[in-house]
Specification:
This protein is of the alpha/beta class and 267 residues long. It is built from ten helices and seven strands. Bound molecules: S-adenosylmethionine. S-adenosylmethionine is lined by residues 2-3, 5, 7, 17-18, 21, 44-46, 49-50, 67-69, 72, 91-93, 108-110, 113-114.
Length: 267
């Protein structure tokens, strides 16, 4: 198994996460750095939130993007109108590129879904030139993502299967303090820096918040889809009560924090 990501549809992903990763992408580019003329690789491009933000960050000369999911690759290709961007299927743990061909190798919200995340970081390091930059970001599911955490906490209060799924979700790879930094250092990257990037996830209503999950997207969507009708009705009501917090349904805004790490390939 080369990916632990649950892909259903590109449109569903956009509603669940793409709309937020698009907001996170410019912050991540600022953190990772980007210069005119560079060749950049986006590892795990999904539907292209980072890929399509890169040309707005600098006059890059070339962007290669890979993803394990054919569904997302097809959607990203459909959206692409920039001749500098090439998108293809590929595995982060075995990048289909020779050594040292990129100036910068970036990965947004991917490493925690890769079965051997350290192998992926080592591959990102291999394909970047000496002195080039490797950077990655993942959500801080335990301490930094209250919108999703509130759903998981609510369903976990209801049954044991959900409690186990929640534990897996909260402690996915690279999310513990300093875990990503130590991984970057182990693969030989230098001057490794870690930071936190914050956006806000703004929802219009409970339906806007919960529908992407009930459509079956992501790990919680997979769990919710497995419930029988009575469990499902109980879960919907409990999550609605958590979202509303005793106030009328309507807009809610949640902070969302990602761990970000950047290192330089040895010269
Ligand atoms: C949460 S999405 C992030 C997508 C995009 N970077 C974004 O920020 O919207 C995680 C992505 O990682 C991809 N992925 C998971 N394992 C992978 C692997 N081994 N190689 C390449 N892509 C992988 C999934 O297919 C999915 O597109």
């Amino acid at each position: 198994m080369a990916s632990n990501f649950n892909v259903r549809s590109a449109g569903g992903y956009e509603q669940l996460m793409g709309r937020w990763s698009r907001k996170l992408a410019p912050l991540f580019i600022d953190f990772a750095g980007l210069e005119d003329g560079e060749r950049v690789l986006d590892v795990g491009c999904g539907t292209g939130s980072l890929t399509f933000a890169l040309p707005t960050g600098a006059k890059v000369s070339e962007i290669a993007a890979i993803d394990y999911s054919p569904v997302f690759v097809e959607e990203a290709k459909r959206r692409n109108s920039d001749a500098r961007i090439t998108i293809r299927e590929g595995d982060a743990m075995a990048l289909p590129f020779p050594d040292g061909v990129f100036d910068r190798t970036l990965s947004l919200l991917v490493l925690h879904f890769v079965p051997d995340a350290e192998k992926a970081v080592s591959e990102m390091s291999r394909v970047v030139r000496p002195g080039g930059v490797v950077a990655a970001a993942v959500w801080d599911h335990l301490g930094g993502l209250p919108s999703m955490r509130m759903m998981w906490d609510t369903v976990a209060a209801q049954d044991d299967g959900a409690r186990q799924a929640r534990s897996r979700y909260l402690f996915q790879p690279m999310m513990a303090p300093n875990e990503m930094k130590q991984c970057f250092e182990r693969v030989g990257l230098r001057r490794v820096e870690q930071s936190s990037l914050m956006i806000r996830m703004d929802y219009q209503s409970f339906d806007d918040y919960w529908e992407p999950i009930t459509a079956g997207e992501g790990p919680l969507g997979k769990y919710v889809s497995s419930l029988d009708p009575s469990e499902r009705a109980k879960t919907d009501a409990a999550v609605k009560a958590a979202y509303e917090g005793g106030q009328p349904d309507g807009p809610r805004s949640f902070a969302a924090v990602a761990w970000a790490c950047r290192g330089v390939a040895p010269s």
